[in-house]
Each structure stands twice: as structure tokens, then as C-alpha cells.
Design brief:
The protein is mainly alpha-helical. The protein is 66% helix and 0% strand.
Length: 106
């Protein structure tokens, strides 16, 4: 089973926050130097300064499963793999659909 890498989104968000603070605290604020100093794309910093929200927050309404439910499915897949039965896409979809239908129906 492939190794699941943790998301590095927190690191990126920290750099973006530092760049925003640098921009706001500069005597002569300029987006490009702040973006370059913290390794943030110019357009990302520009968008955030204009009020754009992080993708993770903006897409929360579109999520079907909670983080707990996703982690449960991942643990289930890992357990199946330990038993010598790697999860197949259809099985994982079926499990997710069962969770969602139980949530909707009650």
C-alpha cells in the first residue's frame, strides 16, 4: 500500500500569514518583495490581501465526509491491507456511500 504523506498545507499557510504580516508592517508595502521573502506566489498573496479565503476553508461546504469519517475509511483500508486484501476503489466508494446514506437517512 502506498505511503500516505501528511499534508503540507499548514506550512504554506504559515508562510502566507508571515508574508501578509510583512506586507502590512512594511513602511512601503509591496506585494512582490513580501511574496519572494517567504516563498509565496505573488498571485496567492495578492488574492489573500484582497480578501480571498484559503481553499481549505472555501471548499468546506462541498465536503461530503467529515475528517473523522475520512480517517475511519483510511484506517479501514489500512486494516484490509494488513489482512492481505488491499482495498479496491469500488469498495472504498461503497463504504463512503454507506456512511453518507446512514447520515442522510438517519
Amino acid at each position: 500500500m502506498p505511503v500516505i504523506k501528511p499534508r503540507k498545507q499548514n506550512e504554506a499557510e504559515e508562510r502566507i500569514e508571515k508574508a501578509i504580516n510583512h506586507y502590512q508592517q512594511s513602511d512601503e508595502p509591496s506585494i512582490r518583495p513580501s511574496a519572494e521573502k517567504y516563498g509565496v506566489p505573488y498571485s496567492t498573496l495578492q488574492g489573500r490581501l484582497q480578501g480571498r479565503v484559503p481553499q481549505e476553508i472555501g471548499h468546506q461546504k462541498m465536503l461530503v465526509l467529515t475528517e473523522y469519517e475520512e480517517k475511519s475509511i483510511v484506517r479501514w483500508c489500512e486494516r484490509l491491507d494488513e489482512w492481505g486484501h488491499p482495498a479496491q476503489l469500488g469498495m472504498v466508494k461503497g463504504m463512503a456511500e454507506a456512511i453518507v446514506s446512514r447520515w442522510i437517512n438517519g
